[in-house]
Write a structure and sequence with these properties.
27 strands, Glyco_hydro_3_C_sf, single chain, alpha/beta, hydrolase, hydrolase activity
């Protein structure tokens, strides 16, 4: 295939590179409009040069600072760069996220490769370099932040935006242009392995937090990539890559709004298709989705990139294409602009499809205009474009070894930010007064995650994603265990450790010893949960789906054995999804939930256990009462909730939005300033929140909408606003909420979004199951059909404060 591309390039007559009367080609003229520059360049390119801009090559940077080396993947044949580069290259896939490499030497390796790419094609076009950044830049030695499910638990978009900006600055400093994040899939079944990568089970929470991440990443000059568009998380039985059975209404009202918000408000410049099919149509071949909705309706003008191997999957997994050329034709016509991670279908097979008339060359031109426009806007077509990234400016690039250690991707500011997020993401699920711990003399520290450094990391962290394939290579970052941080938090306590059992080995022989250790202690802290991995190598992560939401292995047996003792048991979860906790819900002293909190996570948990940190996290997904309750979500309609018609009760043990504090809050004095509004208007109300406890704390105010009568079945309630409120002891604050009527819209019977007149309830709540104040309001007038320009957010602010990004 690569040889065919090169042969085609040699046998094609090339257009002149410039008007002889000028010295600078139009595409290099920075004073000309981007569109004119791109059009001139497309007109000058051969078909092979155009298609070369539509694929990437998976590479790994060199730890010696040499040029990158093509990565050999078991799903692809080897790539010959010498054959490809004369026609150019669209993207470099994961130069930092493929093998462990010192960041400075990786940056040098990437710069040298870009020099080769630029000199190897007649237009001097560099490749756009992309990498993963799901929970931090996926590079050796880069900060491992909490996973997205922890972002959701913070209910703090402003903090997430700061984190994303920091991640983006690190990526941009070493020469990366595009980040493959955020994941905007809404959790529909917690058995799905990639729940840890999501922000939660509510589209408003996912949309607001995800949009903040996009803003932060884009503010640093990194192209944010929304994924997975659309329906990946709604797969049958929570299985990875399984078909998605959602109907058009669920798709429009639950799965699509986060993407719409991130494009309209976040300015995302790239979208990645989902692997799944919806009602028989694979996303990579869905023209209605990728062109009709995304571009024609929403106005998106960036690039659509294929999830890895997704175009080839049209042939191999979906069976909608007979050959590689057919797969290329389907994807290109649907609107996929760039094939990732390697060239498989958009090289020679696409050229063949153009030659035999299956694909008009205009379709190729459409895609290449988008990719070149993105490069132009990144300055990559400018005559003074420099492959040397900012972090290497002024360095002696001829002495690679002298560069080693020059770039720190895990500096003090990053670590402090990671700790702040981890602290705000810890959720205190239950507490009988045992927490915070009051200087215990003897602590029994138990469980498989108590003394495991990587227990805080998700599957897309560098150590778990790449490092595990390089045994003996240091993690590159400090990963203190909870055993380490508890010893520092309680220096006078005697801490005795017993593992009890493994994560998923089912081993029972260590449980009696763990019970004995607990029996002899003042308090037992048992640390359970997941091991992140890929494709069955873990209990959470891509391809690590669960049959039930029972704790993996023999962890429940360990927990039950400890609960049989008289020593109070504090259960700590380091996990990628919620689990049913059985007897611990009613019999345990306390439960602390943390979703893979990153490298600073155990400091945050130790702080919550000691009381140094007052917990303020709230559940972005409900915690089930039993292991077999999926699929379930608080967004269910009336028939999805408990009732006399079924003996199965899906009520969660802890509801979406739930979380306790070490202080107390009262909500009072609700006043509805506007309780009747037209279908294009808004409601306004005010209320007071007071800290009635003895220490400072944070209440997370949540606003839910209940529509009692609608033309189609609605969820019992859905989140339409929230805000974090920090209060000192005795302090009260008056809050004002403005709720646009647009937030009451839904997809009607005719498939159009509608705001219907009628009665509504606005529920001010501490969780989806804990309503504190309820306002009856009414929409008047006739039904209205808002479009994609509708208002997407409510606003909750302190009186006399400016609106924040919190809700």
């Amino acid at each position: 295939m690569n040889a065919n591309v090169a042969e085609e390039n040699e046998n094609t007559t090339t257009a002149p590179l410039r008007d002889e009367s000028t010295t600078t080609p139009l595409w290099n003229d920075t004073t000309a409009p981007v569109a004119a520059r791109v059009e001139a360049l497309v007109a000058a390119m051969t078909l092979a040069e155009k298609t070369a801009q539509l694929y990437g090559v998976w590479v790994g940077a060199s730890d010696a600072g040499d040029e990158v080396a093509p990565h050999q993947h078991d799903m692809e044949e080897a790539v010959d760069l010498d054959a490809l580069l004369p026609t150019g290259l669209g993207q470099l896939t994961r130069p930092f996220g493929t093998v462990p490499v010192d960041p400075a030497l990786g940056a040098l390796s990437l710069a040298r490769t870009q020099t080769r790419i630029v000199s190897g094609n007649r237009f001097g076009i560099p490749a756009l370099a992309h990498d993963e950044c799901l929970a931090g830049f996926s590079a050796w030695g880069a900060t491992a932040y909490p996973v997205p499910l922890s972002w959701g638990a913070t209910f703090d978009p402003d903090l997430v935006e700061r984190m994303a900006a920091a991640i983006g600055r690190d990526m941009r400093a070493v020469g990366v242009h595009q980040g493959l994040a955020p994941v905007l899939d809404v959790v529909r079944d917690a058995r799905w392995g990639r729940v840890e990568e999501t922000i939660g089970e509510d589209p408003y929470l996912v949309g607001t937090v995800g949009t903040a991440y996009v803003r932060g990443l884009e503010s640093a000059g990194i192209v944010a990539t929304l994924k997975h568009f659309a329906g990946y998380s709604a797969s049958r039985a929570g299985r990875n890559l399984a078909p998605s059975s959602v109907g058009p209404r669920e798709r429009a009202d639950v799965l699509l709004p986060p993407f719409e918000m991130a494009i309209r408000e976040g300015g995302a410049r790239s979208v990645m298709n989902a692997y799944t099919d919806t009602d028989g149509v694979p996303s990579a071949a869905d023209e209605d989705l990728l062109t009709g909705l995304l571009r024609d309706t929403w106005g998106f003008d960036g690039t659509v990139v294929a999830d890895y191997f997704a175009i080839a999957f049209l042939k191999t997994l979906h069976g909608v294409a007979a050959d590689w050329a057919g797969a290329a034709a389907l994807a290109l016509e649907a609107g996929v602009d760039v094939e990732l991670p390697n060239v498989k279908t958009y090289g020679a097979p696409l050229a063949e499809a153009v030659a035999d008339g299956r694909v008009p060359e205009a379709m190729v031109d459409r895609a290449v205009r988008r990719t070149l426009t993105q490069k132009a806007r990144l300055g990559m077509l400018d005559p003074d474009w420099n492959p040397v990234p900012a972090a290497l400016e002024g360095a002696d690039l001829d002495r690679p070894e002298a560069l080693r250690g020059r770039i720190d991707l895990d500096g003090p500011q990053n670590r402090q930010l990671a700790r702040t997020i981890a602290q705000k993401a810890v959720v205190l699920l239950s507490n009988d007064g045992t927490l915070p711990l009051d200087r215990p003399r003897r602590i029994a520290l138990l469980g498989p995650n108590a003394d495991e450094p990587t227990a805080v990391l998700g599957c897309y962290s560098f150590p778990q994603h790449i490092g595990v394939r390089h045994p003996g290579t240091p993690h590159g970052i400090e990963l203190p265990t909870l055993r380490d941080t508890l010893a520092a938090e309680f220096p006078e306590a005697e801490i005795t450790f017993s593992r009890g059992t493994g994560i998923d080995d089912g081993e029972l022989t260590g449980i009696p010893e763990a019970a004995r250790v607990a029996r002899e202690a003042d308090i037992a802290v048992v640390v359970l949960g997941d091991r992140a991995g890929l494709f069955g190598r873990g209990t959470s992560g891509e391809g690590c789906d669960a049959e039930t939401l029972a704790l993996p292995g023999a962890q429940q047996q360990l927990l039950d054995a400890l609960l049989d003792e008289e020593t109070p048991v504090v259960t700590v979860l380091l996990a990628g999804r919620p689990y049913a906790l059985g007897r611990a819900v009613g019999e345990g002293a306390a439960i602390v939930q943390s979703f893979f909190p990153g490298e600073e996570g155990t400091h945050a948990i130790a702080g919550v256990l000691s009381g140094r940190v007052n917990p303020s996290g709230r559940l972005p997904v409900g915690v089930p009462s039993g292991p077999g309750s999926q699929p379930a979500t608080y967004l269910g309609a009336r028939l999805a909730h408990a009732g006399a018609v079924s003996n199965v009760d899906p009520t969660p043990a802890f509801a979406f939005g739930h979380g306790l504090s070490y202080t107390r809050f009262d909500w009072t004095d609700l006043r509805v300033d506007v309780h009747e509004a037209p279908t294009d208007g808004e409601f306004r109300l005010a209320f007071t929140v007071r800290n009635t406890g003895e220490r400072s704390g944070t209440e997370v105010v949540q606003l839910y909408l209940h529509d009692p009568v609608a033309s189609v079945v609605q969820p019992v309630e859905r989140l339409v606003g929230y805000a974090r409120v920090d209060l000192e002891p005795g302090e009260a604050v008056r809050l004002r909420a403005t709720v646009p009527a647009d937030l009451a819209s839904f997809t009607g019977r005719d498939g159009r979004r509608v705001v219907e007149p009628g009665e509504l309830e606005l529920r001010l709540a501490a969780s989806s199951a804990d309503h504190r104040l309820v306002a009856g309001v009414r929409l008047t007038g006739t039904a209205r059909y808002p479009d994609h320009t509708r208002r997407l957010r409510s606003v909750i602010v302190r009186e006399r404060d400016r609106p924040s990004g919190a809700a």
